[in-house]
């Protein structure tokens, strides 16, 4: 909360003074875009931009939900495994339904409903264990992370679950199609991000999240339904995981034990790069979007060049994550 | 085959009574990608089958997500199950060499599968695919099939000895053939990573004649990206390991997927069966058993298509 007021006062106050905490991630993003442009002429091509934005959509949609969870002082490590499990469930269900209902639109709609429902339930399970049973979020979600990862391996019998060929062709446009040249995953990501930003800034729910993350006891005295709001953040994240899966499955039409591996860490990293505080109390959804794009662009630029040995990709990513956060923290401690 | 095994063990069993009851421990990587999934599938099937053939023996099967867990698994097997023989597919060579060496020194039969240990002569039996031949077969195909100056991108697996050997074999085979490697990067034997990597390569290179995706999971990802870019007719994709879907495409004369290279996950069955025969003393089984990689073509594809396999 203090952080929130501090950043507000500076941005309202001395207009000339540049606030690094706010623009830090944006500067990093622009720097990456300039580097990309300098290294490869195809970087700004329509195809490449579409690719990068569309592949960011899964982590992006999840990271928006993660922003709320972290703002309210929580954490969710299970989202990657959860995504894999929901994807597996969705594929199995759609394959079974295809046998009875043929290759038809209702099968897709039922599949989508199932993915959203399963995600929501999984999120509520996390939320209930954390708020009602009172176990640390880290432990609960570490547990469910292992459970979902094993369940998908078990469902797939150690191999890969694949959507039937004809069904895949019918469902495919949800990832590859679009309107006015903008593909669906990009539109979905944008809509989720815009709604998330509005909810975070302009609704009681968003303010309650920040209040709880800042000081839970004070929030409770202020008659905020702490447990309900907390539970709602995990349920929302679960729902968004389901939504990300709806976008993910049509891409390759398959799910395996390696689906969604490390997504949770990428989502958390994106949230933190974007300026949300890991300890809670202040969240910024648009910052998260910038964070997701930074992570995607690093991978993209490294693939487009022979700049560094591929062995070092992880090191570059790690360095950029730390740099982006250092820029913000430095300005915060100066004040 | 089964009958002979049964007869032999029954005979030995009758002579030596229960003293011959042996415990065979099997430790393999968890099913984190398609090939390892098939490995698990074949290991389970073989254990089930052998349990019927050798009812007096017990089998312990563990799967591990990383090297550290595998070391603990091995320690548990020795301490609590008192294994007499170990069949192990090391997650990584270096960290597992010491622990496996200690087990071998205690007089336990050790069969190492696929990934060799860092020190020679530890194992009683070594069963492996031929990684050099896996890369060489693919490289040889490119050298023969592509015109001079063919442009190739190479998707490698998870950085490991296996991956290095394959790539060395590949590079040796294309040397002097005029085939040019545009780029080489790790797709980590993962569909999603391969998809992303291929998308970026398609943006980067206006002309690609062939993709060597050193595993069929990666080939699936690469094919999806190529299809998205609408460049299916421009290049061929050669995967490896003989995934069902890929063999099916070859069988149907798909122009984008002309051939594939085998690397049978069922080698774990070979290893477990040979170990069981070895410890019963039915036949000498120590030494090395290397399974060569073969080129799957439209002509022989039927022989490599297994309807029931998960991979």
Describe the structure.
The complex is a heterodimer of chains A (335) and B (311). By secondary structure, chain A is mainly α. Helices cover 76% and strands 3% of the residues of chain A. Residues 1-16 of chain A have low confidence and may be disordered. Chain A has a single domain (2-334), classed as ABC transporter involved in vitamin B12 uptake, BtuC (Orthogonal Bundle), CATH 1.10.3470. Chain B is an alpha/beta fold. Helix content of chain B is 46%, strand content 18%. Chain B has ten helices and twelve strands. Chain B has a six-stranded parallel β-sheet with strand order 2-1-3-4-5-11, with helices on both faces. In chain B, strands 7-6-8-9 form a four-stranded parallel β-sheet, with helices on both faces. In chain B, helix 3 runs parallel beside helix 4 and helix 5 (131-145) runs parallel beside helix 6 (161-174). Classes of the chains: A mainly alpha (335), B alpha/beta (311). Chain A binds chain B through residues 40, 42-43, 45, 47-48, 51, 55, 153, 156-160, 162, 176, 251-252, 254, 256-259, 261, 299-300, 303-306, 310-311, and chain B through 30-34, 36-38, 40-41, 159, 183-186, 190-192, 195-197, 199-204, 217, 220-221, 224, 228-229, 245, 310-311.
